[in-house]
Amino acid sequence: MRNTCLNQVHELARKDPRILFLGSDLGAGTLQAFREELPEQFLMEGISEQALVGMAAGLALEGRVVYLNTIATFLTRRCYEQLALDLCLHKAKVRLIGSGGGLVYAPLGPTHQATEDIAILRPLPGMGILAPADATEMKRLMPTTVDYDGPLYIRLGKGGDPVVTPDEPFVLGAPVVLRSGRNILLITTGTAASLALKTADLLAASGHEPGVLHLPTLKPLDLEALKAHLAPMRAVLTLEEHHRTGGLGSLVAEVLAEESFPVPKRFARLGLPDAFAEGYGSQASLMTACGLHVEAAVATVQRLLV
Amino acid sequence: MLDARSLALRRKVVETMIAGGRGHLPSALSLVEILRVLYDEVLRLDPVRPDWPLRDRCVLSKGHGCLALYALLQDKGFFPEEVLSTFCRPGSLLGGHPERGKVPGVEASTGSLGHGLPIGLGYALAGRLSHADYRTFVILGDGECDEGSTWEAAMIAAKHRLDSLVVIVDYNKQQSYAGTSEVLPLEPFSDKWRAFGFAVAEVDGHDVRALRQTFQTLPLAAGRPSAVICHTVKGKGIDFLEGDLAWHHKSALNSATVDQLFAALKG
User: Fold this and answer.
1) Which domain holds residue A38?
2) CATH fold of B4-264, please?
Protein backbone atom coordinates (compact mmCIF):
# COMPACT_ATOMS: atom_id res chain seq x y z
CA MET A 1 0.00 0.00 0.00
CA ARG A 2 2.84 2.38 0.85
CA ASN A 3 4.65 1.62 -2.39
CA THR A 4 1.45 2.07 -4.35
CA CYS A 5 0.84 5.39 -2.66
CA LEU A 6 4.35 6.73 -3.21
CA ASN A 7 4.49 5.46 -6.79
CA GLN A 8 1.20 7.21 -7.40
CA VAL A 9 2.76 10.46 -6.19
CA HIS A 10 5.50 9.89 -8.77
CA GLU A 11 2.99 9.26 -11.54
CA LEU A 12 0.86 12.23 -10.59
CA ALA A 13 3.95 14.43 -10.37
CA ARG A 14 4.88 13.52 -13.93
CA LYS A 15 1.60 14.93 -15.15
CA ASP A 16 1.37 17.88 -12.79
CA PRO A 17 4.40 20.10 -12.15
CA ARG A 18 2.70 21.61 -9.09
CA ILE A 19 3.19 18.34 -7.21
CA LEU A 20 6.12 18.04 -4.82
CA PHE A 21 7.17 15.05 -2.76
CA LEU A 22 8.64 15.91 0.62
CA GLY A 23 10.12 13.20 2.81
CA SER A 24 11.50 13.38 6.32
CA ASP A 25 14.62 11.20 6.35
CA LEU A 26 12.92 8.18 4.78
CA GLY A 27 14.60 4.84 4.10
CA ALA A 28 17.56 4.78 1.73
CA GLY A 29 16.46 4.51 -1.89
CA THR A 30 12.86 5.60 -1.28
CA LEU A 31 11.41 6.81 -4.60
CA GLN A 32 14.84 6.75 -6.22
CA ALA A 33 13.31 6.70 -9.70
CA PHE A 34 11.21 9.76 -8.84
CA ARG A 35 14.27 11.58 -7.57
CA GLU A 36 16.24 10.83 -10.72
CA GLU A 37 13.43 11.67 -13.11
CA LEU A 38 11.97 14.76 -11.39
CA PRO A 39 14.67 16.17 -9.10
CA GLU A 40 12.96 19.57 -8.92
CA GLN A 41 9.83 17.96 -7.47
CA PHE A 42 11.57 15.76 -4.91
CA LEU A 43 12.74 16.98 -1.51
CA MET A 44 14.28 14.84 1.20
CA GLU A 45 14.77 16.78 4.40
CA GLY A 46 15.85 16.06 7.94
CA ILE A 47 14.12 14.78 11.05
CA SER A 48 12.31 18.04 11.66
CA GLU A 49 8.61 17.42 11.28
CA GLN A 50 7.45 20.71 12.78
CA ALA A 51 9.48 22.80 10.36
CA LEU A 52 8.61 20.50 7.45
CA VAL A 53 4.88 20.93 7.98
CA GLY A 54 5.34 24.70 8.06
CA MET A 55 7.59 24.58 5.01
CA ALA A 56 5.03 22.41 3.19
CA ALA A 57 2.38 25.00 4.06
CA GLY A 58 4.55 27.76 2.62
CA LEU A 59 5.11 25.78 -0.57
CA ALA A 60 1.41 25.02 -0.86
CA LEU A 61 0.42 28.65 -0.37
CA GLU A 62 2.69 29.42 -3.33
CA GLY A 63 0.68 27.06 -5.52
CA ARG A 64 2.36 23.71 -4.97
CA VAL A 65 0.60 20.50 -3.96
CA VAL A 66 2.84 18.88 -1.39
CA TYR A 67 2.84 15.17 -0.47
CA LEU A 68 4.67 14.91 2.87
CA ASN A 69 5.61 11.46 4.06
CA THR A 70 6.99 10.06 7.26
CA ILE A 71 5.87 7.77 10.07
CA ALA A 72 2.28 8.54 11.03
CA THR A 73 2.92 9.22 14.71
CA PHE A 74 5.55 11.83 13.88
CA LEU A 75 3.21 13.50 11.41
CA THR A 76 0.31 13.71 13.85
CA ARG A 77 1.34 13.67 17.50
CA ARG A 78 4.56 15.57 17.15
CA CYS A 79 3.47 18.53 15.11
CA TYR A 80 -0.20 18.82 15.96
CA GLU A 81 -0.14 22.60 16.25
CA GLN A 82 1.54 22.89 12.86
CA LEU A 83 -1.24 20.77 11.39
CA ALA A 84 -3.88 22.99 12.99
CA LEU A 85 -2.32 26.37 12.21
CA ASP A 86 0.04 26.01 9.27
CA LEU A 87 -2.17 23.62 7.32
CA CYS A 88 -5.79 23.93 8.44
CA LEU A 89 -5.94 27.63 9.28
CA HIS A 90 -4.23 28.40 5.96
CA LYS A 91 -6.23 25.77 4.01
CA ALA A 92 -2.90 24.57 2.62
CA LYS A 93 -2.91 21.83 0.00
CA VAL A 94 -0.61 19.49 1.84
CA ARG A 95 -1.20 15.75 1.75
CA LEU A 96 0.19 13.97 4.79
CA ILE A 97 1.10 10.39 4.03
CA GLY A 98 1.27 8.65 7.40
CA SER A 99 3.24 5.40 7.28
CA GLY A 100 2.20 2.73 9.76
CA GLY A 101 -1.38 3.54 10.70
CA GLY A 102 -2.54 1.55 13.74
CA LEU A 103 -0.31 -1.23 15.01
CA VAL A 104 1.77 -1.72 11.85
CA TYR A 105 4.95 -0.99 13.78
CA ALA A 106 4.06 -3.48 16.53
CA PRO A 107 7.64 -4.59 17.20
CA LEU A 108 8.83 -0.99 17.50
CA GLY A 109 6.58 -0.18 20.45
CA PRO A 110 4.21 2.64 21.39
CA THR A 111 6.45 5.46 20.08
CA HIS A 112 5.74 4.24 16.55
CA GLN A 113 2.12 3.10 16.81
CA ALA A 114 -0.40 5.53 15.34
CA THR A 115 -3.37 4.56 17.43
CA GLU A 116 -5.11 7.91 18.01
CA ASP A 117 -4.24 9.68 14.76
CA ILE A 118 -7.82 9.72 13.49
CA ALA A 119 -9.15 10.94 16.84
CA ILE A 120 -6.83 13.92 17.00
CA LEU A 121 -7.23 14.88 13.35
CA ARG A 122 -11.03 14.69 13.18
CA PRO A 123 -11.71 17.99 15.01
CA LEU A 124 -9.20 20.00 12.95
CA PRO A 125 -11.24 22.28 10.66
CA GLY A 126 -10.91 21.27 7.02
CA MET A 127 -8.54 18.34 7.58
CA GLY A 128 -9.53 15.47 5.29
CA ILE A 129 -8.88 11.94 6.56
CA LEU A 130 -8.47 8.94 4.28
CA ALA A 131 -7.89 5.34 5.28
CA PRO A 132 -8.02 3.02 2.28
CA ALA A 133 -8.39 -0.73 2.78
CA ASP A 134 -5.98 -2.05 0.17
CA ALA A 135 -3.49 -1.10 -2.51
CA THR A 136 -6.01 -1.09 -5.34
CA GLU A 137 -8.21 1.35 -3.49
CA MET A 138 -5.13 3.45 -2.77
CA LYS A 139 -4.42 3.59 -6.49
CA ARG A 140 -7.96 4.74 -7.28
CA LEU A 141 -7.95 7.22 -4.42
CA MET A 142 -4.71 9.06 -5.04
CA PRO A 143 -5.75 11.03 -8.16
CA THR A 144 -8.70 12.45 -6.19
CA THR A 145 -6.34 13.94 -3.61
CA VAL A 146 -4.57 16.35 -5.96
CA ASP A 147 -7.18 19.08 -6.10
CA TYR A 148 -8.82 18.68 -2.68
CA ASP A 149 -9.11 22.20 -1.30
CA GLY A 150 -7.28 21.91 2.02
CA PRO A 151 -5.01 19.53 3.88
CA LEU A 152 -5.47 15.77 3.78
CA TYR A 153 -4.17 12.87 5.85
CA ILE A 154 -3.69 9.51 4.17
CA ARG A 155 -3.35 6.61 6.62
CA LEU A 156 -1.21 3.78 5.31
CA GLY A 157 -1.53 0.13 6.26
CA LYS A 158 1.31 -2.33 6.36
CA GLY A 159 1.30 -3.36 2.74
CA GLY A 160 0.38 -6.67 1.20
CA ASP A 161 -3.09 -6.27 2.66
CA PRO A 162 -5.73 -8.49 1.00
CA VAL A 163 -7.62 -6.77 -1.80
CA VAL A 164 -11.18 -6.41 -0.60
CA THR A 165 -12.56 -3.34 -2.33
CA PRO A 166 -14.64 -3.39 -5.52
CA ASP A 167 -13.10 -1.98 -8.68
CA GLU A 168 -15.30 1.10 -8.80
CA PRO A 169 -14.34 4.75 -9.23
CA PHE A 170 -13.25 6.29 -5.92
CA VAL A 171 -15.52 9.04 -4.66
CA LEU A 172 -14.10 11.14 -1.84
CA GLY A 173 -16.46 10.97 1.13
CA ALA A 174 -18.57 8.07 -0.12
CA PRO A 175 -19.00 4.89 1.97
CA VAL A 176 -18.16 1.67 0.09
CA VAL A 177 -20.30 -1.43 0.42
CA LEU A 178 -18.08 -4.49 0.76
CA ARG A 179 -20.94 -6.86 1.48
CA SER A 180 -24.69 -6.35 1.45
CA GLY A 181 -26.68 -7.61 4.37
CA ARG A 182 -29.74 -7.41 6.56
CA ASN A 183 -30.17 -6.38 10.21
CA ILE A 184 -26.46 -6.48 11.05
CA LEU A 185 -24.00 -3.89 9.79
CA LEU A 186 -20.26 -4.05 10.36
CA ILE A 187 -18.65 -0.67 9.70
CA THR A 188 -14.93 -0.42 9.17
CA THR A 189 -12.16 1.80 7.89
CA GLY A 190 -8.66 1.17 6.58
CA THR A 191 -7.19 -2.31 6.61
CA ALA A 192 -9.58 -3.47 9.36
CA ALA A 193 -11.88 -4.16 6.40
CA SER A 194 -10.50 -7.67 6.10
CA LEU A 195 -11.23 -8.30 9.79
CA ALA A 196 -14.79 -7.11 9.21
CA LEU A 197 -15.20 -9.41 6.20
CA LYS A 198 -13.89 -12.43 8.14
CA THR A 199 -16.30 -11.58 10.93
CA ALA A 200 -19.11 -11.41 8.39
CA ASP A 201 -18.14 -14.83 7.01
CA LEU A 202 -18.39 -16.42 10.45
CA LEU A 203 -21.68 -14.72 11.22
CA ALA A 204 -23.04 -15.87 7.86
CA ALA A 205 -22.01 -19.43 8.66
CA SER A 206 -24.31 -19.28 11.67
CA GLY A 207 -27.25 -18.07 9.64
CA HIS A 208 -26.96 -14.30 9.77
CA GLU A 209 -26.79 -11.89 6.84
CA PRO A 210 -24.35 -9.20 7.97
CA GLY A 211 -23.46 -6.27 5.76
CA VAL A 212 -20.00 -4.71 5.69
CA LEU A 213 -19.61 -1.00 5.05
CA HIS A 214 -16.16 0.51 4.57
CA LEU A 215 -15.45 4.21 5.14
CA PRO A 216 -12.24 5.00 3.23
CA THR A 217 -12.98 8.67 3.83
CA LEU A 218 -13.66 9.61 7.43
CA LYS A 219 -13.72 13.30 6.63
CA PRO A 220 -15.33 14.84 4.66
CA LEU A 221 -17.95 12.10 4.93
CA ASP A 222 -21.26 11.74 3.11
CA LEU A 223 -23.30 11.53 6.30
CA GLU A 224 -26.60 11.11 4.49
CA ALA A 225 -25.26 8.03 2.74
CA LEU A 226 -24.02 6.65 6.05
CA LYS A 227 -27.42 7.26 7.66
CA ALA A 228 -29.15 5.50 4.77
CA HIS A 229 -26.97 2.44 5.34
CA LEU A 230 -27.61 2.55 9.08
CA ALA A 231 -31.37 3.09 8.89
CA PRO A 232 -32.66 -0.46 8.42
CA MET A 233 -30.10 -2.14 10.69
CA ARG A 234 -30.73 -3.57 14.17
CA ALA A 235 -27.14 -4.32 15.25
CA VAL A 236 -24.18 -2.14 14.35
CA LEU A 237 -20.55 -2.91 15.16
CA THR A 238 -17.62 -0.67 14.25
CA LEU A 239 -14.20 -2.25 13.79
CA GLU A 240 -11.03 -0.17 13.60
CA GLU A 241 -7.31 -0.47 14.23
CA HIS A 242 -7.41 2.63 16.40
CA HIS A 243 -8.45 3.55 19.91
CA ARG A 244 -12.15 3.17 20.61
CA THR A 245 -12.15 6.84 21.56
CA GLY A 246 -12.44 9.45 18.87
CA GLY A 247 -12.16 7.37 15.72
CA LEU A 248 -14.63 5.54 13.52
CA GLY A 249 -16.60 4.14 16.46
CA SER A 250 -17.07 7.58 17.96
CA LEU A 251 -18.03 8.98 14.59
CA VAL A 252 -20.78 6.38 14.13
CA ALA A 253 -21.88 6.79 17.76
CA GLU A 254 -22.33 10.51 17.16
CA VAL A 255 -24.57 9.82 14.17
CA LEU A 256 -26.59 7.21 16.07
CA ALA A 257 -27.02 9.49 19.07
CA GLU A 258 -28.17 12.49 17.07
CA GLU A 259 -30.40 10.80 14.53
CA SER A 260 -33.73 9.23 15.46
CA PHE A 261 -33.96 6.10 13.34
CA PRO A 262 -37.33 4.32 13.12
CA VAL A 263 -35.60 0.96 13.56
CA PRO A 264 -34.02 0.78 17.05
CA LYS A 265 -30.40 -0.32 17.15
CA ARG A 266 -27.88 -1.99 19.40
CA PHE A 267 -24.38 -0.67 18.92
CA ALA A 268 -20.83 -1.54 19.95
CA ARG A 269 -17.33 -0.41 19.06
CA LEU A 270 -14.42 -2.78 18.59
CA GLY A 271 -11.08 -1.03 18.78
CA LEU A 272 -8.04 -0.58 20.94
CA PRO A 273 -8.47 -0.01 24.67
CA ASP A 274 -7.45 3.17 26.48
CA ALA A 275 -3.86 2.06 26.97
CA PHE A 276 -0.57 1.87 25.13
CA ALA A 277 -0.26 -1.57 23.56
CA GLU A 278 1.70 -3.91 25.82
CA GLY A 279 4.24 -6.22 24.26
CA TYR A 280 5.62 -6.31 20.74
CA GLY A 281 5.42 -9.20 18.29
CA SER A 282 3.65 -8.96 14.94
CA GLN A 283 0.86 -6.58 14.01
CA ALA A 284 -1.57 -9.52 14.03
CA SER A 285 -0.45 -10.84 17.41
CA LEU A 286 -0.59 -7.41 18.99
CA MET A 287 -4.07 -6.82 17.59
CA THR A 288 -5.17 -10.11 19.13
CA ALA A 289 -3.58 -9.16 22.45
CA CYS A 290 -5.52 -5.89 22.32
CA GLY A 291 -8.82 -7.69 21.75
CA LEU A 292 -9.05 -6.78 18.09
CA HIS A 293 -9.71 -10.16 16.47
CA VAL A 294 -12.45 -12.02 14.67
CA GLU A 295 -13.63 -14.06 17.66
CA ALA A 296 -14.10 -10.92 19.73
CA ALA A 297 -15.97 -9.29 16.86
CA VAL A 298 -18.30 -12.25 16.42
CA ALA A 299 -18.93 -12.49 20.17
CA THR A 300 -19.72 -8.78 20.34
CA VAL A 301 -22.24 -9.02 17.51
CA GLN A 302 -23.87 -12.06 19.13
CA ARG A 303 -24.20 -10.08 22.35
CA LEU A 304 -25.90 -7.28 20.43
CA LEU A 305 -28.40 -9.73 19.00
CA VAL A 306 -29.52 -11.13 22.38
CA MET B 1 15.79 60.66 18.73
CA LEU B 2 12.74 59.43 16.88
CA ASP B 3 11.76 61.53 13.88
CA ALA B 4 8.29 62.75 13.01
CA ARG B 5 7.38 59.67 10.99
CA SER B 6 8.43 57.28 13.74
CA LEU B 7 6.36 59.28 16.23
CA ALA B 8 3.34 59.40 13.92
CA LEU B 9 3.45 55.65 13.37
CA ARG B 10 3.67 55.10 17.12
CA ARG B 11 0.63 57.31 17.65
CA LYS B 12 -1.23 55.13 15.15
CA VAL B 13 -0.14 52.05 17.08
CA VAL B 14 -1.35 53.52 20.38
CA GLU B 15 -4.66 54.71 18.89
CA THR B 16 -5.29 51.23 17.51
CA MET B 17 -4.49 49.62 20.82
CA ILE B 18 -6.81 51.98 22.68
CA ALA B 19 -9.61 51.30 20.17
CA GLY B 20 -9.33 47.60 20.88
CA GLY B 21 -8.78 48.02 24.58
CA ARG B 22 -5.83 45.67 24.48
CA GLY B 23 -2.71 44.72 22.58
CA HIS B 24 0.97 43.94 22.98
CA LEU B 25 2.11 47.54 22.89
CA PRO B 26 5.80 47.30 23.91
CA SER B 27 6.37 44.39 21.49
CA ALA B 28 4.96 46.52 18.67
CA LEU B 29 6.97 49.61 19.59
CA SER B 30 10.28 47.80 19.29
CA LEU B 31 9.36 46.88 15.70
CA VAL B 32 8.37 50.26 14.30
CA GLU B 33 11.64 51.29 12.64
CA ILE B 34 12.30 47.80 11.29
CA LEU B 35 8.89 47.69 9.63
CA ARG B 36 9.05 51.32 8.57
CA VAL B 37 12.29 50.88 6.67
CA LEU B 38 11.13 47.60 5.14
CA TYR B 39 7.79 48.96 3.95
CA ASP B 40 9.06 52.41 2.97
CA GLU B 41 12.22 51.45 1.16
CA VAL B 42 12.98 47.75 0.88
CA LEU B 43 9.99 45.56 0.07
CA ARG B 44 8.71 45.27 -3.50
CA LEU B 45 4.97 45.66 -2.96
CA ASP B 46 1.79 46.91 -4.54
CA PRO B 47 -0.89 47.67 -1.94
CA VAL B 48 -3.54 47.57 -4.65
CA ARG B 49 -2.51 44.01 -5.53
CA PRO B 50 -1.62 42.34 -2.22
CA ASP B 51 -1.38 38.97 -4.00
CA TRP B 52 0.91 40.20 -6.79
CA PRO B 53 3.01 37.08 -7.50
CA LEU B 54 6.30 38.96 -7.69
CA ARG B 55 5.88 40.88 -4.43
CA ASP B 56 8.40 40.36 -1.67
CA ARG B 57 6.91 38.24 1.14
CA CYS B 58 7.13 39.71 4.63
CA VAL B 59 6.04 37.41 7.44
CA LEU B 60 5.63 38.83 10.93
CA SER B 61 6.37 35.65 12.83
CA LYS B 62 6.10 37.44 16.18
CA GLY B 63 2.42 37.95 15.50
CA HIS B 64 1.84 39.65 18.83
CA GLY B 65 3.68 42.66 17.37
CA CYS B 66 0.85 43.11 14.85
CA LEU B 67 -0.14 46.59 16.04
CA ALA B 68 2.98 47.89 14.31
CA LEU B 69 2.33 45.82 11.18
CA TYR B 70 -1.27 47.05 10.97
CA ALA B 71 -0.05 50.66 11.28
CA LEU B 72 2.39 50.19 8.38
CA LEU B 73 -0.03 48.25 6.17
CA GLN B 74 -2.69 50.92 6.69
CA ASP B 75 -0.18 53.68 6.12
CA LYS B 76 0.82 52.06 2.83
CA GLY B 77 -2.79 51.78 1.71
CA PHE B 78 -3.48 48.08 2.10
CA PHE B 79 -6.71 48.97 3.91
CA PRO B 80 -8.54 52.15 4.96
CA GLU B 81 -7.69 54.00 8.15
CA GLU B 82 -11.08 53.41 9.75
CA VAL B 83 -10.35 49.70 9.90
CA LEU B 84 -7.73 50.35 12.59
CA SER B 85 -10.41 51.55 15.00
CA THR B 86 -12.10 48.12 14.78
CA PHE B 87 -9.05 46.32 16.22
CA CYS B 88 -10.12 43.21 18.17
CA ARG B 89 -13.80 44.16 17.84
CA PRO B 90 -16.45 41.61 16.83
CA GLY B 91 -16.23 41.02 13.09
CA SER B 92 -13.04 43.04 12.63
CA LEU B 93 -10.38 42.13 10.07
CA LEU B 94 -7.76 42.95 12.67
CA GLY B 95 -7.27 40.53 15.51
CA GLY B 96 -4.77 40.46 18.33
CA HIS B 97 -2.68 38.29 16.03
CA PRO B 98 -2.65 38.74 12.23
CA GLU B 99 -4.48 36.39 9.89
CA ARG B 100 -3.68 35.74 6.26
CA GLY B 101 -6.71 35.98 4.01
CA LYS B 102 -8.35 38.50 6.32
CA VAL B 103 -5.89 41.37 6.46
CA PRO B 104 -4.59 42.47 3.04
CA GLY B 105 -0.80 42.33 3.09
CA VAL B 106 -0.53 39.77 5.86
CA GLU B 107 1.43 36.82 4.47
CA ALA B 108 0.89 34.24 7.21
CA SER B 109 -1.39 33.72 10.19
CA THR B 110 0.89 33.91 13.17
CA GLY B 111 0.56 34.24 16.90
CA SER B 112 1.78 30.92 18.13
CA LEU B 113 5.54 31.33 17.99
CA GLY B 114 7.96 29.33 15.88
CA HIS B 115 5.71 29.07 12.81
CA GLY B 116 6.81 32.00 10.68
CA LEU B 117 10.26 30.85 9.68
CA PRO B 118 9.16 27.39 8.48
CA ILE B 119 6.35 28.95 6.42
CA GLY B 120 8.67 31.66 5.07
CA LEU B 121 11.17 28.94 4.21
CA GLY B 122 8.44 27.34 2.09
CA TYR B 123 7.78 30.67 0.34
CA ALA B 124 11.47 31.13 -0.39
CA LEU B 125 11.91 27.59 -1.65
CA ALA B 126 8.84 27.92 -3.87
CA GLY B 127 10.34 31.08 -5.34
CA ARG B 128 13.56 29.24 -6.08
CA LEU B 129 11.70 26.34 -7.71
CA SER B 130 9.66 28.64 -9.93
CA HIS B 131 12.62 30.91 -10.74
CA ALA B 132 10.79 33.94 -9.33
CA ASP B 133 13.03 36.66 -7.96
CA TYR B 134 10.97 37.77 -4.98
CA ARG B 135 12.55 37.79 -1.52
CA THR B 136 11.13 36.50 1.74
CA PHE B 137 11.59 38.42 4.99
CA VAL B 138 10.67 36.78 8.28
CA ILE B 139 10.59 38.89 11.42
CA LEU B 140 11.21 36.92 14.58
CA GLY B 141 10.98 37.92 18.19
CA ASP B 142 13.93 37.12 20.38
CA GLY B 143 11.81 35.07 22.80
CA GLU B 144 10.55 33.22 19.75
CA CYS B 145 14.06 31.95 19.18
CA ASP B 146 13.44 29.63 22.15
CA GLU B 147 11.31 27.54 19.77
CA GLY B 148 13.02 24.52 18.22
CA SER B 149 11.04 24.76 14.98
CA THR B 150 12.81 28.08 14.27
CA TRP B 151 16.19 26.36 14.32
CA GLU B 152 14.94 23.36 12.34
CA ALA B 153 13.87 25.77 9.62
CA ALA B 154 17.17 27.65 9.86
CA MET B 155 19.11 24.47 9.14
CA ILE B 156 16.93 23.63 6.16
CA ALA B 157 17.27 27.17 4.75
CA ALA B 158 21.05 26.94 4.97
CA LYS B 159 21.08 23.51 3.33
CA HIS B 160 19.19 24.96 0.36
CA ARG B 161 21.48 28.00 0.24
CA LEU B 162 18.42 30.24 0.19
CA ASP B 163 19.92 33.70 -0.06
CA SER B 164 16.49 35.09 -0.94
CA LEU B 165 15.47 34.43 2.67
CA VAL B 166 16.12 37.12 5.28
CA VAL B 167 15.55 36.61 8.99
CA ILE B 168 15.18 39.79 10.99
CA VAL B 169 15.27 39.41 14.75
CA ASP B 170 13.68 42.07 16.94
CA TYR B 171 16.20 41.61 19.74
CA ASN B 172 14.63 43.69 22.48
CA LYS B 173 16.11 41.40 25.17
CA GLN B 174 12.84 40.93 27.01
CA GLN B 175 10.23 38.24 26.92
CA SER B 176 7.02 37.84 28.86
CA TYR B 177 8.33 36.88 32.27
CA ALA B 178 11.73 38.57 32.36
CA GLY B 179 14.80 39.34 30.30
CA THR B 180 15.85 36.79 27.72
CA SER B 181 19.16 36.48 29.56
CA GLU B 182 17.25 35.21 32.59
CA VAL B 183 14.47 33.12 31.03
CA LEU B 184 16.57 31.42 28.37
CA PRO B 185 19.86 33.02 27.35
CA LEU B 186 20.32 33.42 23.60
CA GLU B 187 23.92 34.58 23.61
CA PRO B 188 26.14 34.18 21.76
CA PHE B 189 23.19 34.96 19.51
CA SER B 190 24.87 36.06 16.29
CA ASP B 191 27.26 33.15 16.54
CA LYS B 192 24.31 30.78 16.77
CA TRP B 193 22.87 32.07 13.50
CA ARG B 194 26.32 31.91 11.92
CA ALA B 195 26.74 28.34 13.11
CA PHE B 196 23.39 27.49 11.54
CA GLY B 197 24.67 28.67 8.17
CA PHE B 198 23.44 32.27 8.03
CA ALA B 199 25.36 35.40 7.11
CA VAL B 200 24.77 37.78 10.00
CA ALA B 201 24.66 41.53 10.54
CA GLU B 202 23.90 43.40 13.75
CA VAL B 203 22.31 46.80 13.70
CA ASP B 204 20.60 49.35 15.94
CA GLY B 205 16.97 48.49 15.23
CA HIS B 206 15.79 52.06 15.87
CA ASP B 207 18.39 53.76 13.64
CA VAL B 208 16.60 54.29 10.35
CA ARG B 209 19.76 55.10 8.44
CA ALA B 210 21.63 52.07 9.77
CA LEU B 211 18.72 49.76 9.01
CA ARG B 212 18.51 51.16 5.49
CA GLN B 213 22.22 50.62 4.91
CA THR B 214 22.09 47.06 6.21
CA PHE B 215 19.01 46.10 4.20
CA GLN B 216 20.59 47.60 1.07
CA THR B 217 23.42 45.08 1.31
CA LEU B 218 21.12 42.04 1.29
CA PRO B 219 21.83 39.26 0.76
CA LEU B 220 24.67 39.54 3.21
CA ALA B 221 26.46 36.71 1.41
CA ALA B 222 25.71 34.92 -1.83
CA GLY B 223 24.42 31.41 -1.32
CA ARG B 224 23.52 31.87 2.33
CA PRO B 225 20.36 33.06 4.05
CA SER B 226 20.77 36.34 5.91
CA ALA B 227 20.06 37.12 9.55
CA VAL B 228 19.83 40.74 10.65
CA ILE B 229 19.91 40.99 14.42
CA CYS B 230 18.25 44.28 15.33
CA HIS B 231 19.09 45.58 18.77
CA THR B 232 15.91 47.23 19.97
CA VAL B 233 14.19 48.50 23.07
CA LYS B 234 10.89 46.99 24.11
CA GLY B 235 8.41 49.85 24.43
CA LYS B 236 10.70 52.19 22.48
CA GLY B 237 9.50 55.77 22.34
CA ILE B 238 7.36 55.84 25.46
CA ASP B 239 9.73 56.29 28.35
CA PHE B 240 7.58 54.74 31.08
CA LEU B 241 7.02 51.60 28.99
CA GLU B 242 10.66 50.98 28.18
CA GLY B 243 11.86 48.11 30.30
CA ASP B 244 8.58 47.71 32.21
CA LEU B 245 7.62 44.02 31.97
CA ALA B 246 4.12 44.69 33.32
CA TRP B 247 3.20 46.35 30.02
CA HIS B 248 3.70 43.19 27.92
CA HIS B 249 0.09 42.03 28.43
CA LYS B 250 -1.42 45.33 29.55
CA SER B 251 -5.08 46.04 28.90
CA ALA B 252 -7.85 48.08 30.53
CA LEU B 253 -6.17 51.48 30.29
CA ASN B 254 -7.55 54.40 32.28
CA SER B 255 -7.84 57.86 30.75
CA ALA B 256 -4.85 59.22 32.65
CA THR B 257 -2.65 56.49 31.21
CA VAL B 258 -4.00 57.16 27.73
CA ASP B 259 -3.09 60.83 28.14
CA GLN B 260 0.39 59.87 29.27
CA LEU B 261 0.87 57.60 26.23
CA PHE B 262 0.03 60.40 23.80
CA ALA B 263 1.98 62.98 25.75
CA ALA B 264 5.07 60.81 25.44
CA LEU B 265 4.65 60.70 21.66
CA LYS B 266 4.32 64.44 21.04
CA GLY B 267 6.60 65.53 18.22
Assistant:
1) 2-155
2) Rossmann fold (3.40.50)
